[in-house]
Amino acid sequence: MKIIIIEDEDLTAEDLALTLKRIEPSSELSARLSSVKEAIAFLKSDPDIDLIFSDIQLGDGESFDIFREVSPKAPIVFCTAYNQYMLEAFQTFGLDYILKPFSDESILKTLEKYKQLRQTFNRGTQNMVDAVTRPSPGADARKKSLIVINGDKIIPIQLQEIALCYIEYENVFVKTDAGKQYLVNKSLEEMEQMLGGEFFRVNRQHIVKRATIAYANTSLSRKLILSLHVEHPIKISVSKEKYQMFMQWLQG
Length: 252
Prior knowledge:
The chain is of the alpha/beta class. It has two domains: 2-133, Rossmann fold (3-Layer(aba) Sandwich); 139-250, CATH 2.40.50.1020. The protein has helices at 10-23, 36-44, 63-69, 86-91, 104-122, 128-133, 139-142, 188-195, 243-250, and strands at 2-6, 28-33, 51-55, 57-58, 61-62, 76-80, 94-99, 145-150, 153-158, 162-168, 171-176, 181-184, 199-201, 206-209, 213-218, 224-228, 236-238. Strand 13 (199-201) and strand 14 form a beta hairpin. The radius of gyration is 22 Å and the shape is elongated.
C-alpha cells in the first residue's frame, strides 16, 4: 500500500508515518509533503499511490486548495484538530476524517475502511479510485441528495425534499418540506446549478421550489410577494427583472 502524507508539522508527520508502519507493515511512504504548492506539483506528476493522509490547515493554505487544482489520485483521509471542516472534507472526495491527536484505533479503523472499499469495488467492474474519488462527467446533474452536517451528524438530504434555499448572515441554508433547516457548505450559485428546473432563484437571497409556492400577491411596489407552504420568517419577493421569467417558470 503506497501512501503519501501531506503535513507541515514534522513531529505529527513522523508520528503518523510510524503509526501506519506499525499497524500496516506492508505500507510504503511514497512521499511526505508539507505545503499546498509542493503537494500540487507532486500530484501533477501522476504518482502511483493508494491512499492520501492530509492535514487541512497548511502553511500556505488549506489542503482543499490542492484538490481543487489537481484531481485526487487516491482516496483522502483528512486529519485535523477541528471538526468544522467535516462537510467540506466529504465533499472533496474524503474517505475518512480523523481528529487530532489521532490514535492507533482511529488509524486502524480508517485502514480497515479503505480495505473493505477496495475489496468491494474490486469485485465489481469499477475501479475503487474512480468510484470513490473521481466524479464522472455530468455527475452534478445526476445528484439526488445533498450532504449536510447537523451537530456531529452527517445527513443526506434528498434534493426533492428541499423547499427553498436562502442566505442569512452570509451563510447558505436549506429548508425542507418538513420545515427543518440546515446549514450547507455551498454558495447559492452552486445550489442553483445543482437543484435543476423545479427550482427558481427569485432574487439574490432565495431559491424556491415550484411546489413550495402556495400563491403570489402583487405588492404596492409592483413586486410579487410569495406565500409558501412552509413557514419562513422573511417575506420573499420576486425581483422586477425576473418577473416574466418567473411567471413562465411557474406555469411549468
